[in-house]
């Protein structure tokens, strides 16, 4: 083997850290013989053709710009949650009424009820028939935000129209509804996690406008009305047991007169009119 030049020794690198410049070095400077020796020691070095192909699949500046535009548009469609309650226990009913403009179900959201009562668990998710690994991933996503007290969070309204259409296209005989497990799966696959009760309250305080009058809007406001004015908005990230031992989800509901903090059965058939508050991971 001929003497190596007096620059950095590429043999000191591991296969994972081998750069394209090393490949060019061995192929064009030292020749095929030394290249073969290097390959025996650390694995295959990319060829010039490999490098050329790799360059061709990289994103162009224009494509990167498009991705940035997409993200900016996505931000516009998100709701920033900064004022998220940090309670150990639920406050008095008057706090819901004055601070959040909500009429809470008295028995479910009673004063001094522990917030631990509303914690969603991996076991709860597995009871819906959700696979164990998927259930674990969802709980970890929730716990991660809670542990680091991530602020702000960015919420979106998740509806089932597209998911149901895709389900129908795969199986025209399928029902026009989703199970609770299927909804969790769809939310996670889309890159979100379910919102908790306190995040639902933060959304209600700063963003929810169910009494927005469609007659006073322009056509361009249609999406805004649908998203911010959803008459029913469910948080799948909190769960509580009611007086009948049923598992219940927290729910914002609008009956045309009153903004309510209500509840909905955990095990349910969810249809196209159902909307869920979700948090971007």
Features:
281 residues; alpha+beta; 2 domains; 8-stranded mixed beta sheet; two-stranded antiparallel sheet; 11 helices; 40% helix; 18% strand
Describe what you observe in this structure.
The protein is α+β, with helices and mostly antiparallel strands. The protein contains eleven helices and ten strands. Strands 1, 2, 3, 5, 6, 7, 8 and 10 form an eight-stranded mixed β-sheet that branches. Strands 4-9 form a two-stranded antiparallel ribbon. Strand 6 (232-241) and strand 7 (247-254) form a beta hairpin. Helix 1 runs antiparallel to helix 2. It is globular and about 80 Å long.
Overall pLDDT = 79
Give the total of domains. 2
Describe the main β-sheet briefly. 8 strands, mixed
Q: pLDDT below 50 for ≥5 consecutive residues: which ranges?
A: 1-20, 51-57
Total helices: the number is: 11
SSE diagram, text form:
Layout: H1 20-30, H2 32-42, H3 48-57, H4 61-76, E1 79-81, H5 93-99, E2 103-104, H6 122-126, H7 132-147, E3 153-159, H8 161-170, E4 178-179, H9 180-189, E5 192-194, H10 197-206, H11 222-228, E6 232-241, E7 247-254, E8 259-265, E9 269-270, E10 275-280
Parallel strand pairs: 2-8, 6-10
Antiparallel strand pairs: 1-3, 3-10, 4-9, 5-10, 6-7, 7-8
Helix pairs in contact: 1-2
Q: What is the gist of this entry?
A:
About 40% of the residues lie in helices and about 20% in strands. It is of the alpha+beta class and about 280 residues long.
């Amino acid at each position: 083997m001929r003497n190596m030049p007096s620059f950095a020794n590429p043999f000191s690198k591991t296969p994972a850290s081998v750069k394209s410049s090393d490949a060019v070095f061995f192929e064009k400077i030292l020749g095929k013989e030394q290249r073969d020796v290097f390959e025996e020691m650390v694995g295959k070095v990319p060829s010039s053709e490999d490098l050329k192909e790799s360059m061709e699949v990289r994103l162009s500046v224009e494509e990167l710009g498009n991705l940035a535009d997409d993200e900016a548009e996505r931000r516009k469609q998100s709701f920033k949650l900064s004022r998220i309650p940090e309670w150990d226990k639920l406050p008095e009913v008057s706090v819901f009424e004055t601070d959040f403009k909500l009429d809470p179900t008295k028995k479910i959201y009673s004063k001094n009820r522990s917030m631990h009562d509303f914690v969603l668990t991996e076991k709860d998710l597995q009871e819906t028939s959700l696979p164990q690994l998927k259930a674990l991933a969802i709980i970890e996503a929730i716990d991660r935000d809670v542990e680091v007290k991530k602020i702000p969070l960015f919420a979106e309204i998740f509806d089932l129209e597209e998911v149901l259409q895709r389900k129908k296209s795969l199986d025209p005989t399928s029902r026009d509804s989703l199970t609770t497990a299927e909804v969790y799966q769809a939310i996670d696959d889309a890159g979100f996690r379910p919102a908790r009760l306190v995040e639902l309250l933060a959304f209600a305080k700063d963003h929810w406008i169910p009494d927005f009058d469609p007659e006073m809007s322009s056509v361009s406001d249609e999406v805004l009305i649908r998203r911010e004015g959803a008459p029913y908005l469910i948080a799948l990230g909190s769960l509580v047991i009611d007086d009948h031992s049923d598992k219940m989800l927290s729910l914002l509901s609008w009956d045309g007169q009153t903004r309510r903090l209500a509840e909905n059965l955990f095990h349910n058939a969810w249809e196209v009119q159902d909307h869920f508050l979700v948090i971007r991971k």
